[in-house]
Amino acid sequence: MKNRLFMYLFIFTLLLVIFQFVNSKSIIENYDEKLTNYMEKNTVYKDSIQLLKDREASNIYSFNFETNDDAMTYIENEGFKISEFIPFIKDELYELNVYDTEDHPLVPYASMTENKMLIDQVRMLNHKWIIASFTDGTYWGEMLLSYEVIDKKELRFKVLASTMYMP
Fold first, then answer.
1. 155 pairs with which residues across the strands?
2. What are the tens digits of pLDDT across the range 9-58?
3. What span, in angstroms and rounded, lies between the C-alpha atoms of 12 and 104?
4. Do 147 and 132 form a contact (C-beta atoms < 8 A)?
5. How far apart are CA 164 and CA 162, in angstroms?
6. pLDDT class for 60, splitting at 50, 70, 90?
7. Torsion angle (degrees, nearest 10) of CA 33, 34, 38, 44
8. Are the beta carbons of 76 and 82 closer than 8 angstroms?
């Protein structure tokens, strides 16, 4: 009887070990497959990131005053500090939003609503040109401005081109 009991225990243990081995093998294969998929996706993502970095590097100039060394050098040679010059220009443009007449001093379009036309975004291209967007809350547009600094205190703006979008 003792021999049979040991034999049954041995067979049961053997079956349990075989079951564990097969189950563990399938789990490991599943994890290995998932790891391979993740590694492939990681490679694709790294390639995408590198592509975006390359695009960013090619667009670094992107007509922006802050990345235009020649424009900044010109302004510094005129006696301005870059850290003070950009806010000075933008503040002067935004101050033009406070007006009492019906028409904005710079925006070449009249408002078609009860609201006033206001300059809402300004992007300096270089030491001579600015792109500004304007809106009255319903209609909006953009304009290309030239600017000139007079006696380090006064600015003169001139609208070179503009466009209006309809909703």
1. 149
2. 888 898 888 888 888 888 898 999 999 999 999 998 998 899 888 887 77
3. 92
4. no
5. 7
6. low
7. 50
8. yes
